[in-house]
Amino acid sequence: MAGNYRFAMDQKDIVRTLITTVGSFTQDRLIDKEQRVQHKEQCAERLAAEDGSSGNDSEVRYSDQAVLANLDWGIDALEEAINTSNIETKHARLDYAEKMLHVCAMLTSDQKTAGVPNPYLSAWAYLNLSYLWKLRNDVHNSVLHVLEMFIVEPFFSRIDFAPELWKKLFLPHMSSIAGWYAEARHRLMMEVVPDSSDMSFTADLDQFFKESLVFSMRPDQMNKLKKLEQLYSESLDENTRLFAKYYKDCMNSDLSPGASKKVMAPMLPIAEPPMTPLHEVSRSIPDYVKFGPILPKSAGFSPVLKSKHCGREGNNRVSLNSSAFLHDMNESAAWDSHDGVPEGNEDDSDYEANDGSIGLTVQQQAKLNRTRSPSIFSPADSPRTSSSKTSSPKSDVNSRKESRSLLRLLSCRIAAPSDAISLPISPSKSNDHSISSADSNGEVIEMPKSCRKNDGRPLSTSYDYVNIRTSENSFQNESDEGSLSYVSLPLSEKLTPHSKALKDFVCPITGQIFNDPVTLETGQTYERKAIEEWLNRGNTCPITRQPLSSNVLPKTNYVLKRLITSWKEQHPELAQELLYSETPKAKFSSPLGKEIVLVSPSNQTSEFSNFKAMDDHVTQRGKRFTRPVVATSPTSVISQAAVEMIINELKPFVSCLCTSNNLEECESAVLEIARLWKDSKGDAAVHSYLSKPTIVNGFMEILSASLDREVLRTSIYILSELLFGDENIGETLTSVDSDFDCLAALLKNGLAEAAVVMYQLRPSFAQLSSHDLVHSLMQIILCKNEESVDLLLMIKPKDAAIAMLEQILMRGDENSRSLNALTVVSSNGIASLVKCLHRIEGRRSVISILLCCMRADKSCKNLIANGIELSYVLELFHTGNDSIRGICVDFLSELVQLNRRTLCNQMLQIIKTEGAFSTMHTFLVYLQMAPMEQQPATAALLLQLDLLVEPRKMSIYREEAIEALIEALQKKEFPNQQMMVLDALLSLPGRITSSGESYIESWLLKVSGFDHPYNALVKADWTETTEGEEKAVCSWEKRVAFSLCNHEKGCIFKALEECFKNNSLKMAKSCLVIATWLTYMLSTLPDTGVREAARESLLDEFINVLQSSKNLEEKILAVLALKTFINDPTAIEELGKYAKCIYKTLRKLKRNSFVANEILKALMNLSSVNATEMWSCIDVVELDLSTNGEVLCMVYFKGCLISSHSDGTIKVWDAGRRRLRLVQEAHHHIKAVTCLYVPSSGDRLYSGSLDKTIRVWELKPEEIQCVQVHDVKEAVHEFAANSKFACFISQGNGIKVYNWSGTPKHINFNKSVKCLAMTGNKLYCGCSGYNIQELDLCSGTVSTFYIGTRKLLGKQTVNSLNIHDDLLFAGGSAVDGISGKVFCRSSKAVMGTFPTGSDIQRIAVNNDFIFTATKLGIIEVWLKERMSRVGSIKMKGKAHVKITSLVSDIDGGMLYTASSDGKIQVWALD
Fold first, then answer.
1. What is d(CA 376, CA 1255) in angstroms, rounded to the nearest whole number?
2. Cα(117)–Cα(1169) distance, rounded to whole angstroms?
3. Tally of CA atoms within 13 A in the half-sphere of 1437 that contains its CB
4. Which residues of 762-789 are buried (b: 16+ CB within 10 A; e: fewer)?
5. Is the peptide bond before 427 cis (omega within 30 degrees of 0)?
6. FRET partner for 1001 with CA separation of 20 to 30 A, picked from 165, 235, 1028, 1401?
7. Which of 1403, 1406, 1397 shows the shortest CA–CA distance to 1419?
8. 525 SS3 class
């Protein structure tokens, strides 16, 4: 809980964590029926142990029997409710179970029921009530009942009922107690360790905390140790109860908003160690000190069991002091009335027997041993506690367990050598003195029939006070017939407690006595040569499976080596014998073909410890997959005779299977073989007998021939069992390709169990891909049918299918991976795979599969995001190794790239707050240690989590994440990593399409005015974006940009500058997009002084792209980035240095992006820029159209040039490729066409002629079509029109206004009108006397716009008017050296003049330039922004030629002139 957090948790976090943790615990218990059955039997055995210890003389009261019956009925009713699918029945059984369980839950805590302490029964009832409330979907009440269980009975709750839950909720708070215990015990042990003064700090003191040191303890030291451990256990119980009450108060105070009463939040308690005289040492714990066992072990309720032969009761464990033991044998122990903890249990330790069944028969003892729950240890446990023990076998479906021979510490010393000990003994010969213990590793000893006391002789050595402990020196050898024979090792007649090699002296890998012991950081000790060979195959501890931080072995454990040397000197003959003998090791062969050393359940606290390699990638194995080989000791459940009997029964069926040609007989034989195999409980001899190649081939023949589904499933079951026990069988099956083909065919035909054997055979990717199994494997995953209970496979078919599917998707080339992943998506398997994440087995494989699917089809991200429980992914990340964490990071990074920003933020918030650990801190730690290829994704994910809040204050997470991205971006020698960083940066702005692709580039182009890519993207792949979503995106990208740009004063720009220089086109393009986005965002963010850093690093790069790139989109991106600098005086001056180089490119880009025009304006306004140097023109073509007379007028519209001629012809030209191409001639007018006009709407062409008509033309691509003819009764000399009015100049003063439906209306100015210009409903008339009149067409009112200065000499006339934007350009007679002026239409103010001495006949204007034509055939070019002359163009031909028309395209790239001699001349402007 809070102890797991680096920072304190508030009450809501505690409640949320309680609900999540307890909910997960109860859910797992409800799913695992086998575990519930085992737990019930274990508790029943405790009751039986208590009943046996209380004696047969006392009669159980009827009321006590009723209470126990209610508990049993309640548990049975709850089990029925779990198993039924009928809703009404389920509710009824739950109600009944609640009533029955409440009877036990309400028992008085200080009394007993049938000799059993009431707290134990109440805690058991509360545990089942928590299951009940979970079934009712009331997690709150479920949590309260679990907490009540810990309050009522903390001892058995933490060792029997919910040890794994205790570790998560309470153990983190017990660190101070564990530290106190470790210090105190260390101090005691150091008093006993020989030569402790010169002990190295690197020595493994844990070796001294075992039996080897106990033998040298004095009675007073032993008494201190016993009291210490008792006090330690009591402290754990008391603090567990204290924190349980605190959690309960938190749950009760967390009321809903509608609740009427608000409870004050409770105060967090602090677990403090007991203050005793033992607590004299420093609180600082040396690193080399290992924590001792935290949880004492107990075998039953009663601390005392009767001894039938000694006639007295003994303590439930054997005292290390023989005198104390004999004293205890005469006394009875009682239950502690305060907490229900058996007296004397708290001082249990590793070197003491954990069973007190002295005097029980072998059959009783075996029954008791089968139901013993393994001791659960905390993470602070000494590694030795678990490394020296083997985990008990898993029970089968009927919960039948195999008993193992146990080791018992004898409570009396051997008085004389004549007290011989016979080894081994057979179950048939065992008597009441044969005692076994769950911690003996298959060791057995027969007690002497008389326990003699000390004869009173002086004690010469400390050995007189210690117990004698011997190990079994027998092991099984398999005979040719499959039976078991026993080989006994000789024992010396003078057998003493030190006359054997203690297990501390034996390497768990080699099974030999240590020669050069080394102790790893996990606390486990191995032979140096053996562990070196192991580390060559993988950098993990063989026993704990924990990854090692270093592959360099530590120094020799000299303390242990000295102890071994001392033992060898005292017992040279035994040392020589054991040198050539092999110590039995508990091992099993996994289906993956790797030998795995068994560890006790205490070492399997992590749900993710069982990851093994399958080919080149890791496959997760759940706890149910680990099963040890059956016990081979003489006290095995199946005796030698029983094994021989089973093998004899198997022989006829095996013979039939291998030789018979009758399929039905063979099928029956398979069923019988399966039955006998179950009866043998997987005995090694039976396994060896069935593993012969001929028998295995017989099963394969049945698989290829039979059509009976039951027979097929049974055959698969047997093969799976055989493969699990011996990987060599796989060689028999894989030696023939047809065997695997047969299994693949069965899988495709719907036999799901075939996937298990295929998985165990470890097929290669080529084998899997050749059979096209993806669809079949997905059918298994989609199947909702539960696993059959009659054939319980070691691996569930769904788990095997997931593992093989992962191998298929992770191997092969990119194309095959993509196709296979798309098959998974198309089969609608995403939802089923997401549901599989709640299972620990295969969770990593599921995440790998989903990751492949997201990369192949990014549109499935939303489906995954809507259904996934992210706590499972985070749990896997917290507990996995680096490889698994990398997969989790990649998965989360892909998952948060959603097209909806609000949903993406919700996912990030869940990742940030989910789980019992600080996710951001865990990511930060992983980032600092992650492999190079994982750093970009981890840093990007960590940065996004941090940016969920405004990035105004300093954050270590944000700083470390950005620093990691920039460092990776600067590594030129690792281009792949640079590309990964760029991809991560491209996804950070959060602009993602519905298909999962980033559209930041298209969006930037749209901002620049080039929206073609964006529109195409919207049309092809788009989900409508709401206003709220757009606001969320804008807010998010501002946060990202602000954080990236302001890190270390803009150092990211320097890193991007280096990436620009990379030879990879893909990298350069990605770098350009990111740099453009960051530079553009600078204009939207507050100026923090980083723009200068951006300019210094990126300005030259953007200009280089503008000059050298041939890609239009790249140039537009560079232009958008440069626009950010035009408002910076320093930047624009520096940009002006490149004006001449980029001027031409910018002018070309104006037609695609308005941003280019803004940059051009800024450059032209620079005094340092010489506009004359940048302008030039090229004579493109000259057309002689004199056959049609003069060219009177021209207009340019959308790539077409339309000209009118004096013979009444109108010609349409294609001007798209600079050269004019005639596409149409129209001869509708019968006289000269004097004027052409295209209104601003661009939908019509109007032509006026001397034939007194106005024609209206419809504009079509490369064609015009006359649609209307209006007879205006007068010749038309100049013309302007819109949709309502047509205005033209005829003979005389004034103008004619025609409303398209009536007769022309004459408006007299008393002035001669020479030219017209129209915009909207305003008409401007250029008149004689250098006068400009303004006519409002709607009201008909006339006003004077401008009046020129009168001159006595010469006529002063306005010859041409042109309107562009809000400016009115007028040209005419030269007056005082001024031939034209520029007016602002709104204010009528003069904005500029044309200082030329020649009269202006025609004016043309585009976005950049103003062209004025004079009488002499000279065209002067003026810069529009500065009104300065930049050049001139001379018309070809005779000097007296008059320019009749002048027109330019809107972008100023082309200039067209028409002359009175019938020619059209074209110039290209550069």
1. 101
2. 99
3. 21
4. bbebebbbebebbebbbbbbeeeeeeee
5. no
6. 1028
7. 1403
8. strand
Distance, CA of 341 to CA of 123 (rounded, Å): 13
Measured CA to CA in angstroms, residue 892 lies from 340, 803, 903, 1184 at distances of: 48, 21, 14, 71
- The token duo for 1171 is 């506009």
CA distance 886 to 355: 45
Cα–Cα distance for residue pair 244/149, rounded to 1 Å = 9
Per-residue DSSP letter, 995:
T
Q: Which residue bears the tokens 């019988």?
A: 672
Q: Is 30 exposed, middle or buried (0-12, 13-18, 19+ CB in 10 A)?
A: middle
Rounded Cα gap, residues 1449 and 1453, in angstroms: 7
Determine contact, residues 1427/1380, Cβ cutoff 8 Å: no
d(C-alpha 759, C-alpha 804), whole Å: 7
Three-state SS annotation for 364-380: HHHHHHHCCCCCCCCCC
Sign of the dihedral through C-alpha 624, 628, 630, 633:
negative
CA distance 801 to 1314: 90
Measured CA to CA, the distance from residue 263 to residue 1058 in angstroms comes to 60
Long-range interactions of 606-611: CB distance < 8 A, separation 24+: 606/879, 607/840, 607/875, 607/879, 608/840, 608/843, 608/844, 608/876, 608/879, 608/880, 608/884, 609/544, 609/545, 609/546, 610/545, 611/545, 611/844, 611/880, 611/881, 611/884
Amino acid (one-letter) located at 1162: A
DSSP 161: I
Alpha-carbon Rg of the chain, whole angstroms?
A: 47
CA 748 from centre of chain: 32
Q: In what order do the strands lie in the sheet with 1390-1394?
A: 1358-1364, 1367-1375, 1378-1384, 1390-1394
Measured N-to-C along each axis, helices 797-810 and 843-856 cross at an angle, to the nearest 10 degrees, of 40
Rounded to whole angstroms, what are the CA distances from 23 to 132, 493, 801?
Answer: 12, 59, 28
What's the token pair of residue 632?
Answer: 């081979």
- The dihedral of CA 537, 541, 544, 545: what is its sign? negative
Residue 870: which residues within 8 A CB-CB, separation 6 or more?
892, 907, 910, 911, 914
Mean pLDDT by 10 residues, the chain (1470 residues): 46 86 89 85 71 49 76 89 86 88 85 86 91 90 92 89 89 84 80 55 45 62 83 89 89 58 54 50 34 32 35 34 34 36 37 35 36 34 35 37 30 33 34 36 36 36 32 36 35 40 75 86 86 80 80 82 82 62 37 33 33 38 34 41 84 89 90 90 87 89 90 91 83 78 90 90 87 89 70 84 90 86 89 87 89 88 87 87 89 88 89 78 88 91 88 83 92 89 91 84 91 81 74 90 90 90 87 93 87 89 89 92 86 84 84 86 80 80 91 90 94 85 92 92 90 91 89 89 88 83 78 89 89 88 85 75 91 86 91 87 87 87 84 78 87 84 87
Residue appearing with tokens 């096209």? 772
What is the C-alpha end-to-end distance of the chain, expressed in Å? 74
